[in-house]
Amino acid sequence: MATGPRYFVPFRRRREGKTDYYRRMALLASGMPRMVVRKTNRRIIVQLVISGLEGDRTLVAASSNELAGYGYEGSSSSTPAAYLTGILFAARALNAGYREAILDIGLHRAKPGARVFAALKGATDVGLEIPHGDSAIPDESRLKGAHIAEYAPERAADLVENVEKVADAIKKELME
């Protein structure tokens, strides 16, 4: 370990590998609420967060575990689940009066077609304004789950229809 008068001990969350403070400061400088997308092994979580002096505050949240209540039958950690969670989140954010946000993917890699960008696509499809480029968004067939139905037809043969039905149910129920 380095020692001496010029050694700087990093912040605890940086040492733990949880926060990139340079990226966080750039996001906070925008002054817009952040659409925070986090993926775990079992679910996708999307939150609308604002920062304050006392800490961050979550204004609106949606999780892929809630999709079962709308009739979704697929995995809660897949690309279609991320897309539907983005739709659910955006509908709640619009109902709460928030019209724009900026994407915060944290330490997740920004690979084209990633699940975090599927959530972004779901949110922008409903009408939430989030600055983004179209090159990172997954294909429409992946958002609907056609790739899953192709390699696992015995378990997910009707996944594409299920995703479309759930998306319509979320939009109809929450956009009233």
What does this structure look like?
The protein is an alpha+beta fold and 176 residues long. It has a single domain, classed as Nucleotidyltransferase, domain 5 (2-Layer Sandwich). 41% of the residues lie in helices and 15% in strands. It has 8 helices and 4 strands.
DSSP helical segment count? 8
The quaternary structure here is single chain
CATH class: Alpha Beta
CATH topology: Nucleotidyltransferase, domain 5
Low-confidence stretches: none
**How are the strands ordered across the major sheet?**
3-2-1-4
Shape: globular
Strand content: 15-25%
Counting structural domains, the number is 1
CATH architecture descriptor text = 2-Layer Sandwich
For the record, give the distance between the C-alpha atoms at the N and C termini, rounded to a whole number: 59 Å
Instruction: Please provide the count of β strands.
Output: 4
Which class do the helix and strand fractions yield? Answer: alpha+beta
Mean pLDDT: 91
Gyration radius, in Å: 18 Å
